[in-house]
Amino acid sequence: MKVIAEPGVPQVVIIREFRAPRELLFRAYTEPDLVKRWLGPAELELVVNQLDPQHGGRWRWTQYDSDGKGYVFHGLYHGEPTPERIVQTYEFDHAPGTVYLNLITFDEADGVTTLTQNTVFFAVEDRDLYVAGGMERGIRASMQQLDDLVTQLAKESNS
Amino acid sequence: MVLKPLGYEDGLTGVFAALADPTRRAILTQLKHGDATVAELAAPFSMSQPAVSKHLKVLENAGLISRSQRATARLSHLEAEPLRTAVGWLMDYRAYWAESFDRLDDLLDDLKGES
């Protein structure tokens, strides 16, 4: 997987290859039961509230952390989603008006599909804010590990 | 993805703004080899010392370098921590998608098995 994030440019591009036909990738992106099986880290539960993959169709999902706190994301599909490309807007419901645009393309050759996810933000600040959420997750995961370790040590000292 | 302002993104924005300029990236690369004076840093560029000083000011404000006085010259010193934070930002974003796409690999294998 390749991540391209140029300093000073409000954009992140991810490129990843899959050993599968693009029709299957398209299904994984557009069928609610399938989306929830892969999108996001395993420790966050994804609930797909709405997913209408057509021009002007709405999508909405909620990610629940281990404390049961939900984070809602929603947006629209722009243009008819196809196994070649999906264009969609994203908005976090706690930051209305801060929208970003995702262009996902699937290029298939010799049984390998190359996925390119091009995410464009209003400003570098918005990109950094979006990605800061990932840092929080990292910190939370570390805190959980620390908590587990302390619990484990407490058990060992009792026995 | 879980999104929440943490308070340090302003600092990170300054770091990325400072890194956006190729001359400033070249200066940081040069400082990896050790502290240097403005004259030493200006040498590889066809640039005046005041112009280099301007870049150093931006790098200093972003926390990417610190400056100290040695005799009559000011020495610039590379500060690694903000760079590490910037890399950490990218790592975590990478981790989010790397994990998602690994799960997608498994799902695609399941779907291939069905068809």
Structural class of chain A: alpha+beta
Tally of DSSP β-strands of chain B: 3
Structural class of chain B: alpha+beta
- Fraction of residues in β-strands of chain A: 35-45%
Any overview of this molecule?
The complex is a heterodimer of chains A (about 160) and B (about 120). Helix content of chain A is about 30%, strand content about 40%. By secondary structure, chain A is α+β, with helices and mostly antiparallel strands. Chain A has one domain (about 1-125): Alpha-D-Glucose-1,6-Bisphosphate, Chain A, domain 4 (2-Layer Sandwich). In chain A, strands 1-2-8-7-6-5-4-3 form an 8-stranded antiparallel beta sheet. In chain A, strand 5 and strand 6 form a beta hairpin. Chain B is of the alpha+beta class and about 120 residues long. Chain B has one domain (about 10-115): Winged helix-like DNA-binding domain superfamily/Winged helix DNA-binding domain (Arc Repressor Mutant, subunit A, Orthogonal Bundle). At the A-B interface, strand 2, helix 1 and helix 3 of A face helix 1 and helix 5 of B. Chain A: Belongs to the AHA1 family. Chain A: Pfam families: AHSA1 (PF08327).
In short:
The complex is a heterodimer of chains A (159) and B (115). By secondary structure, chain A is of the alpha+beta class.
Task: Summarize the SSE layout with pairings.
The complex is a heterodimer of chains A (159) and B (115).
Chain A: E1 2-4, E2 11-18, H1 22-30, H2 32-35, E3 45-51, E4 58-64, E5 70-76, E6 85-92, E7 99-109, E8 112-120, H3 124-158
Antiparallel strand pairs in A: 1-2, 2-8, 3-4, 4-5, 5-6, 6-7, 7-8
Chain B: H1 9-19, H2 22-31, E1 36-37, H3 38-42, H4 49-61, E2 65-70, E3 73-78, H5 80-114
Antiparallel strand pairs in B: 1-3, 2-3
Helix pairs in contact in B: 1-4, 1-5
